[in-house]
Design goal:
Blueprint: E1 12-19, H1 22-32, H2 36-39, H3 41-46, H4 56-70, E2 82-88, E3 97-111, E4 114-124, E5 130-141
Antiparallel strand pairs: 1-3, 2-5, 3-4, 4-5
Length: 146
């Protein structure tokens, strides 16, 4: 179990990889972000993107899955007060393989038994190009709850 005290500024954690299919892009977008360039191949080809792209929210959800599997499920995670500076840098396309990296930029005690960890998340495609970034703020339990 990873506690707040175990987390050090400057640490970089690789979050793993995720392959995104056309079927998954269409399914997510039809449910949650049904804009033409996410759900209609012909319309997407006529758009400024030149083809079908994943919703940014889909990319963020994939990143969250990787983050949970790599860090949160092995830790004393207590949730998050939110994220800052979410940026979608370039489109995610069918067949892309995404990889994530989490760099811890700040740790500080918060309340009794809780510490806050601030980190920069960067998601890249298989070509090493950044597709999404954000600053995440997580709450973690302390070894000494007092």
């Amino acid at each position: 179990m990873i506690y707040f005290e175990d987390i050090k500024e400057g640490t970089v954690v690789e979050l793993g990889t995720y392959y995104i299919s056309e079927e998954e892009i269409l399914d997510f977008a039809m449910k949650y972000d049904p804009q033409p360039f996410h759900i209609n191949k012909e319309e997407a080809e006529k758009s400024m993107y030149g083809g079908l792209i994943a919703s940014g929210w889909h990319t963020a959800s994939i990143c969250m899955k990787l983050y949970v599997e790599a860090i949160l499920n092995k830790s004393s995670s207590l949730g998050s007060p939110g994220i800052d500076e979410l940026r979608w840098k370039r489109p995610v396309r069918p067949g892309d393989t995404l990889s994530g990296m989490f760099t811890i930029i700040e740790t500080k005690p918060f309340k009794k038994g809780i510490g806050i960890v601030k980190g920069k998340v960067e998601v890249k495609n298989q070509d090493g190009k950044t597709v999404m970034t954000y600053i995440g703020n997580g709450m973690f339990g302390r070894k000494d709850p007092n």
